[in-house]
Specification:
This protein is of the alpha+beta class and 256 residues long. The chain contains 9 helices and 11 strands. The chain has 2 domains: 3-80, Arc Repressor Mutant, subunit A (Orthogonal Bundle), CATH 1.10.10; 106-254, 2-Layer Sandwich (Endonuclease, Chain A), CATH 3.30.870. The protein is rod-shaped and about 90 Å long.
């Protein structure tokens, strides 16, 4: 990376970078000398130098006849840039809140393979960890596992343990397929704080799982180990309504 490009990355424009480099090599100089060294016209050099003073990259030393300019240390300039970045990062939650209010489009992320699915669930777990223990819960439609690869089946079991350890409760609808009999064990249901309705396979048989929490809906294809995470309050709200309607209409509940 060229020095000019590096300075542009710190927030300077091309002319400001040229003037700062020229002044850095001169240590102290008048605007005329800086203009000559940087190849800019004197009026332009004056304007650029004043901009660099305002940005904190240059000091202006008043003299009786002519002002003298001195470049600040590169270490000091980089430190200043870090401070500005730190200030911006502190404002990030507020900026994201403004974006969330004004953005009408859904935020959609795509994941694939076991590494991607794990990354998706880390977002869910992080969301749950930020809540009070009494609020750590979500709803779901769960699939059978007749086409689920072994690596994904193993991850589901690990995830179940993590839910239990972190007091994350679930209310979900699934199917009474032989491939998920281990999840219908009443002792496991009690241990993990699960509320479940297992429908007959003729009424419900799915190869995908759908989980809904806060404004998020995540859809996982078991067969292809692919996932989509949608952040949209309207979509999440409708999915919750559908879940509650199905829950209310079915009597096939596994009692705790």
């Amino acid at each position: 990376m060229e020095l000019t490009e590096a300075l542009i990355n710190l927030g300077l424009n091309e002319k400001e970078a040229r003037v700062y480099l020229a002044l850095l090599s001169l240590e102290k100089a008048t605007a005329y000398t800086v203009a000559t060294r940087s190849g800019l016209k004197k009026p332009t050099a004056y304007v650029v130098l004043d901009n660099l003073v305002a940005k904190g990259f240059v000091l202006k030393i008043p003299q009786k006849e002519k002002h003298i300019f001195m470049a600040k240390s590169p270490r000091e300039c980089i430190s200043l840039a870090r401070e500005k970045l730190s200030d911006a990062e502190e404002m990030l939650p507020e900026l994201l809140a403004i974006q969330k209010k004004s953005d009408e489009k859904a935020n959609i992320s795509y994941y694939e393979k076991i590494e991607g699915i794990k990354e998706m669930y880390q977002k869910l777990l992080k969301n749950m960890h930020q809540k009070k223990e009494s609020d750590r819960n979500f709803i779901a439609f769960y699939a059978h596992q007749k086409d689920t690869p072994q690596i994904l089946q193993k991850y589901w079991l690990d995830l179940n343990e993590e839910y239990g350890e972190n007091k994350i409760k679930r209310k979900y609808i699934t199917t009474k397929h032989p491939s998920i009999q281990k999840y219908l064990d009443i002792n496991i249901i009690k241990k993990l704080g699960i509320e479940m309705k297992a429908l007959s396979e003729r009424n419900y048989s799915s190869n995908i799982s759908i989980e809904v929490y806060d404004d998020f809906v995540q859809i996982i294809s078991h067969r292809y180990i692919q996932g989509v995470l949608i952040e949209n309050p309207d979509i999440a709200d409708v999915m919750k309504q559908i879940f509650n309607l199905v829950w209310k209409l079915t009597k096939e509940k596994v009692r705790k």
